[in-house]
Amino acid sequence: MLHPLLPDNAQTEKGWNRIIIEKPFGFEALSSNKLTKALLSKFDEHQLYRIDHLLGRNLIENLTVLRFSNLIFEPLWSRTYIRSVQIILSEDLVVQTGRYFDGYGIIRDVVHSHILQTIALLAMEQPVSLDGEDIRNEKVKVLRSICKLDPRNVILGQYKATSGDKVDVKLNSLTPTYFAAALFIDNARWDGVPFLIKTGMGLIKRRSEIRIQFHHVPGNLYRERIGHNIDLATNELVLRDAPDEAILVRVNNKIPGLGLQLDASELNLLYKDKYNVEVPDSYEHLLLDVVDGDNHLFMRSDELTAAWNILTPVLQEIDKDNITPELYELGGRGPVGAYYLCAKHGVQWTEH
């Protein structure tokens, strides 16, 4: 909680005063609201910087650049052309955060801030300007438009740690280390488009990417050349942060030769080949933003409330023991239930 001496004795009368709060921002809506009230009783909203280091990655900063500075993307950015969106954040490591993670789990630690903020930046309308408040105004509109998460559209998992595994925490039986869900945004741009989330620890590989799948080509003349699985020929835009930062566009192409054989190929921009620059640490990036007074990657109080409202139904079901995490092997692909969830919404997890 807020130390009583901090507001009165740690502020300067000249210049500016800003306070950085590390996530998670509460345990649930109630404790989060109490923390927010305590902060706002001593500080103004513009002084608060709720920091999440995952939002300092170049992928996140690049979302608005790609959308609003490239004519080829923005006209396609709606339910008319986009079939589904996948947001994947997987770690091959096991929990190394002790009692902290056992108390909060992956929903409060990763989904509430990083995943929902990524969706907000991806799905928001064009802001009036690049001013932080203008961007946050649009983000909160998206968060308020996201339907409350239906527990039937959620899969929880927990990795099975054996005696030989180097795991520094014995997890509570209900602490999820894996989360998959289908979210829907109830507005004119995104109505009916599933936003599929997959995030977990102890999986087969480290992977961080946003995968945007477009609709099938209506009346495709080349359907017979594509084969039975038309999904293999679906155009995709992939924004990848790990293992190697890249922007990939999957298009259909004729294989050179006398016959008419199609191939789904990736046009790729691999950052390590294109840019010979040192990439700053996420905290470096965000702390510089704090110094500069740039708050667009930091959650405002109303964004915080909107995010908790989305997740509250699922958190309540977990507290009632109505959702039990599915066990999965360390180094595996996660719970089988996640694949059924995707199939339910007509989407196939992309494993490559």
UniProtKB/TrEMBL annotation:
Domain Glucose-6-phosphate dehydrogenase C-terminal, residue spans: 65-349
Assigned keywords, A-Z: Carbohydrate metabolism, Glucose metabolism, NADP
InterPro entries: G6P_DH, G6P_DH_C, G6P_DH_NAD-bd, NAD(P)-bd_dom_sf
Domain of life: Eukaryota
Domain Glucose-6-phosphate dehydrogenase NAD-binding: 11-62
Similarity section: Belongs to the glucose-6-phosphate dehydrogenase family.
This protein's name: Glucose-6-phosphate 1-dehydrogenase
Organism: Xanthoceras sorbifolium
